[in-house]
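Notebook entry, structure prediction.
Reason for the run: the old model in the group folder had no record of what sequence produced it. Starting over properly, with the input documented here first.
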Amino acid sequence: MWNSYGRGDHESVGLPAPASSAESRRHDGHRRTDHSDRSDRPTAEQIEQFIGGYAAAFGTTLRSPVWHSPTEAGLDFQEVTFPSKDGVPLEGWYIPAAGSDKLIIANHPLWFSRSGLPAHLEPWKSMWAATGNDNEVDFIPDYKILHDAGYNVLAYDLRNLGQSGAANGGVISAGVYEARDVLGSLAYVRSRADLTHMAIGLFSRCMGANATIFAMQAEPAAFEGVRAMVAPQPLSPRVTMEQSLAAAGIPARYIDELEQRVRVHTGFRLDEMSPVQAARSVTVPTLLYQVRDDVLTRPDDVILGWFDRYLS
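New structure, fully documented this time:
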């Protein structure tokens, strides 16, 4: 059976629904689907639908709503707005921790907003069901943990996502343009008299990590004084797309066609959106980690890729 995979411009993209006979759950709880014995291979029409919709999602993305609020965790907060480096209006929350002089800036993943991703609801549920990721992601508990540990938190929506402004024709660049938002968040903190003295740390996830790395490459001086970064799951779009094709049962040779379609929408080649080469610009103490057996990434992309390039 094939699911409808709704993407940015609301086209539907065929993805195979996991069948119980072809799926297993790893010891660590992550779902992995084996398509080697599937009889319902994608048709040419379904492949075209998948590739066209996937590429179009980089041209006009589906915004995830700001579905939760810090009040759900009993947190006081301020609604804030500030400009990106290039003037795009960004919407966010400032969550104060009384008596603290430490601040964490949270940079979220692609498709998400500052509050998370409602993947338990349509159309996100159908988008992510085939990879076992049709469960809600709520970031509020994370902000609660940081607050209770004595950290102020600035969480905001990246451009073209959540409630922040549209920019670059709606193009998603996997961190290249979004780097300007990271720079804007740092400038905002330093512009506030009540925040400018604070020690800054970064919690930059997935595309948020990519964006932070690209920002470090573009303007290293902006990160002077930043104490540390936690960077879960930065990734290269090429690897994610290769894994997505495999999960859909589509032959690997279609990656060239998919790259060409993405480039038509964005102007970027896939490797131009990878953070691996920009990683040499990271000078902030950084903790990087990745989900084990994630069906949409590979350890040889970012983690081993960085080590092989810059520690050998």
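Summary: The two ends are 46 Å apart (CA to CA).
The old model has been moved to the deprecated folder.
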